[in-house]
Every structure is written in structure tokens, then in C-alpha cells.
């Protein structure tokens, strides 16, 4: 192999290896979307003191059709 083709081939191999180690482009985008979804935001609905019995830290802590949102008493599970 000529010396002129060796350097670009080596550079391409290193770049491909780094991309594979990083998990690839699609995995990175998917992780960013999951992080945005997992953010606990302020509850949009009106809350009362009885809802404070259902604390949470993440959306996964809540039952189906519920989200984790922030209120005056901390993060709680609330129906959609």
C-alpha cells in the first residue's frame, strides 16, 4: 500500500473506532431525548394536600398514566 494512502486509512479507522466506542450517533440522540422526558417539571394541574402521599423522584416511580411533577410538598405522582 502506498504511503500516501496509509495516513487517511489510519485516520478513518481511528474515527470509526471512536464513534463505535461512543455508542454511535443514534444512541446519543436517544439518550438526550430520554433525559428530556425524565425531567421533573412543575405540576400543571391544581394539587391538594392529599396528593402529597404519593412521593416520587422519577416518572418510572409512578403508576401507568401518571407523571412525577413538582409541587409545594415535593415531587408527587399525578394523573395525566
Describe the structure.
- This protein has 80 residues and is α+β, with helices and mostly antiparallel strands.
- Helices cover 41% and strands 18% of the residues.
- The chain contains 2 helices and 3 strands; from the N terminus they run ααβββ.
- It has helices at 3-21, 24-37; strands at 41-42, 66-71, 74-79.
- Strands 1-2-3 form a 3-stranded mixed beta sheet, with no helix packed on it.
- β2 and β3 form a beta hairpin.
- The chain starts with a helix and ends with a strand.
- The mean pLDDT is 77.
Separate helix tally:
2
H and E order: HHEEE
Q: Could you say which structural class the secondary elements and strand pairing correspond to? A: alpha+beta
The beta-strand count equals 3
The amount of beta strand, in percent, is 15-25%
What overall form do the CA principal axes indicate? rod-shaped
Biggest sheet statistics: 3 strands, mixed
Secondary structure: elements and pairs:
Elements: H1 3-21, H2 24-37, E1 41-42, E2 66-71, E3 74-79
Parallel strand pairs: 1-2
Antiparallel strand pairs: 2-3
Give me some keywords for this one.
80 residues; alpha+beta; 3-stranded mixed sheet; 3 strands; WAP four-disulfide core domain protein 10A-like; WAP_dom; signal
Amino acid at each position: 500500500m502506498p504511503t500516501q494512502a496509509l495516513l487517511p486509512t489510519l485516520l478513518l479507522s481511528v474515527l470509526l473506532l471512536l464513534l463505535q466506542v461512543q455508542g454511535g450517533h443514534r444512541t446519543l440522540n436517544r439518550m438526550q431525548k430520554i433525559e428530556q422526558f425524565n425531567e421533573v417539571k412543575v405540576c400543571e394541574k391544581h394539587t391538594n394536600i392529599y396528593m402529597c402521599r404519593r412521593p416520587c423522584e422519577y416518572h418510572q416511580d409512578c403508576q401507568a398514566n401518571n407523571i412525577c411533577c413538582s409541587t409545594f410538598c415535593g415531587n408527587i405522582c399525578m394523573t395525566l
